[in-house]
Specification:
Elements: H1 3-16, E1 18-21, H2 22-39, H3 43-49, E2 56-60, H4 63-77, E3 84-90, H5 97-107, E4 116-122, H6 129-139, E5 146-153, H7 164-167, E6 174-178, H8 183-196, H9 205-215, H10 219-230, H11 241-247, H12 256-264, H13 268-280, H14 285-304, H15 309-314, H16 321-325, H17 328-331, H18 336-355, H19 360-372
Parallel strand pairs: 1-6, 2-5, 2-6, 3-4, 4-5
Amino acid sequence: MNAMSAAKKAASESSSRRKLSSTEFLACLKRAKDALSKDACDPLLALKNEGITSPLLVIGSDDLRCKRLARWFEESFFDQSSKAEVERVSCAELSNSARLDSFLISLQSLSLFANTRLIVLSQPDALRVAPAKRLGEALSKQSTSIFILILATAPAKKTEKKIPLVDNLPTALITVEMSDFSPQELRSWLEKELVRHGHHGGITPDASKVIADSYGLNLALISQELGKIALLVEPETKIDRRLIEENLPTGSEHTSFELVNAIAVRNLIAAEDLLHNLLVNGQHPLQISSFLSRAFRTIMFKIATRNDNAAATKSPELSNSWFVRNLSGAVSRYSEERLHETLNIMADLDLALKSSGTPPELTISLTLPKLVAQSGARRA
């Protein structure tokens, strides 16, 4: 079979695979869990009766959310039975030929201590084509007592190369696509996350919006900061916008504010590191570009109205005092000339991200040196 035929076959198989939304998947799991608790049957049978079979691929844009789902899946169907065994394997380990050989043998072997096994495979993008093909073929012949759950990070639309393992998985594969949270879903998640941190007072919609504006959907970082804030207030206190604005850190290396500051002081190395952190932690280049544009516009209005308090009070760009406060370190580094150059560069970046066809991560990375090196005079 030539390369073109193989590509067409892979595309055909991919399109014929069954896909479930996260809502549909969770509904199936709830029914299977109810059946399992009533009849104490084999967990694999309970899942199969709901159409959930192995291997199962879960794709989401946030790593923490996928891991939490996998953990709930494990606790619901495998942890409660003393005859179940759970194994977590990173595909990065399987890049080693000897380790892959050992793992493939284990897929055909029965456990001496368990009737069923759950194997959670993470980082499938770490496998190159040859080992991915071997693993994909083995998963189509795995022991019926094993359930394979594969966790993958969703690639950026139309820009990322395909994951070889996904292309080589069996045609009967079920794919669960985890959609991004809506504002209401994010608030619900925040409240549950606060409970995990021992806080039961809940959070207001305004506070949720401030968090979303600051961190996007980077759930791991949001969870970390919520844990810190939960320690500062009484467990039954309602967390509102004021609490978030007063306590949300401004010095974290993962925040977009630090990227603005690094650009302002013309520190290209720091700016590149911060941009990399934002991308790695789930921010899309369009989100980063939008934040930077908003920040530079705010700085422009702050400078333009610095001698006119009445105009500053009425300006919608300066209405969010918390946002303005976090830009205070960058304001003194900009002249109006430099800001005009900066905003022109941002306009070009926005157009390129939306229409150039170049990978957005590359586009924003190439723009960063231009933002750092404008010729506008620095204001004293």
